[in-house]
Input
Amino acid sequence: MDTPLRLEVIIASVRPERFAPVVADWFLRTVRADPEFDTGVIDLIDTPLPLNLTDTPVVAAYRARLAAADAFVVITSEYNHGYPASLKTAIDSAKREWRAKPIGFVAYGGLSGGLRAVEQLRQVVAEVHMVSVRETVSFHQAKRAFDAAGETQDGAAIDAAGRMLRQLAWWARTLRTARTTDPYPG
Output
């Protein structure tokens, strides 16, 4: 298939005065330079998913975007050694839409760089039949990693982003073909 891979980037933090837009804007500039992806953004601060997981028009529109995607990247902070509750609600608000699709992570935080949140998320996404790519982008001491223009000189993160996107593209192409020729039995 020659069509670009549909990538949805999910911004997890919904806290006031969050740092997520800085990290997200940097990552979006990176991924939008790659012609292999047609990239959209689902910012959970603008996606009022009900905590009780009921069906609403917002949930239906959200699920439709997930269903149309070939791959996902979650941009997540780490709160109290875990990921934001908004992200758990977002994952639990859908089911079949996630299946047999790859996911990558861009994490940020203090000393751990959000890696504890990512390790928890790998367990959750496996349960909804997703494939998490090995490479992760992580910003330790995130507020110090970006300049006033939202750029970073963090070579490890820049390198990891390129590797993650190559892995994500491979899995997305492979699984898109598989879903078309042999639907996932989940």
Q: What stands out?
A: The chain has one domain: 5-181. The mean pLDDT is 96. The chain has six helices and five strands.
